[in-house]
TrEMBL record:
One biological process term in Gene Ontology: carbohydrate metabolic process
Pfam families linked to this entry: DUF2334
Gene3D superfamilies for the chain: Glycoside hydrolase/deacetylase
Protein name per the record: DUF2334 domain-containing protein
Signal peptide start-end: none
Length: 249
């Protein structure tokens, strides 16, 4: 996959939806200012069952303009809310409620339920004229059944917190995602420390580094600045590309 030993960076913008129209536009325009092109744009087809992308033509034109500039549009779940909060273990409960804050739509899904949601989301995107090659679940979390449903729906790849999975050849590319997501001061401090550790240690020589930006990062201004700083630093020694371009290398 990596004939020349080059190193790569995927920048993804999460939770792109008319519900966070202001925040995601701000993120994208700052990334443009920083000459960070070729992003993976994770679109929620119908956030919370209320914010369908089809209802906002301005938002859609903006999405099309990103696609024309070379960004990739990725299906990010269906409505980004977990309606099934029956967790299999206390650990899963902690992950779903505290890490993913009730957004892990596919964490507890059975096969049929997951496939149905994936199809509904995909239908909305295709009505908007958008065909996605990748599917990334909210919170990067999904059950093995949901994973099978995504694969059976013909997506080329997905991404978890620690790996990117190429369904076409079954390969996992190890690369833990760098993210922030403001919660409270202690959690933020730990996150900054942990990201610094990842970048100096486990991720330093990895072929792929991923940085994810969420709308909440803009509301807590420092969080976004912090992520942009990381991207600018990584950009000096890595080629920025989308997930799908990386997997097609
Ligand atoms: Zn999300």
């Amino acid at each position: 996959m990596n004939p020349k030993g080059k190193k790569y960076l995927v920048v993804s913008v999460h939770d792109v939806s008319p519900a966070f129209g202001g925040e995601v536009r701000e993120i994208v325009s700052e990334l443009k200012n920083q000459k960070i092109h070729k992003k993976s744009i994770l679109v929620i087809p119908e956030y919370q069952g209320r914010y369908s992308i089809l209802k906002d033509s301005e938002f859609l034109s903006w999405l099309y303009s990103l696609r024309e500039e070379g960004d990739e549009i990725v299906q990010h779940g269906y409505e980004h809310i977990s309606r099934n909060r029956r967790y299999g273990s206390f650990r899963d409960y902690l992950i779903g409620e505290f890490f993913a804050q009730g957004c892990a739509e596919f964490q507890n899904s059975g096969y049929e339920e997951a496939r149905d949601k994936i199809k509904k989301g995909r239908e909305i995107l295709s009505q908007a004229g958008i065909i996605c090659e990748g599917f990334i679940p909210p919170g990067w979390l999904m059950s093995p059944e949901a994973n099978r449903a995504v694969m059976d729906e013909g997506f080329k790849y997905t991404a978890f917190i620690k790996v990117v999975r190429d369904y076409r050849n079954g390969l996992n590319v190890k690369s833990e995602v760098i993210r922030f997501v403001p919660q409270n001061r202690i959690a933020e401090y730990i996150k900054v420390f942990y990201n610094a550790y990842l970048l100096r240690g486990p991720l330093r020589d990895k072929e792929l580094v991923r940085v994810a930006i969420h709308p909440q990062d803009v509301r807590a201004e420092k969080a976004f600045d912090y992520l942009v700083k990381i991207i600018r630093k990584l950009k000096k020694e890595r080629v920025i590309l989308t997930y799908v371009d990386f997997l097609n290398l």
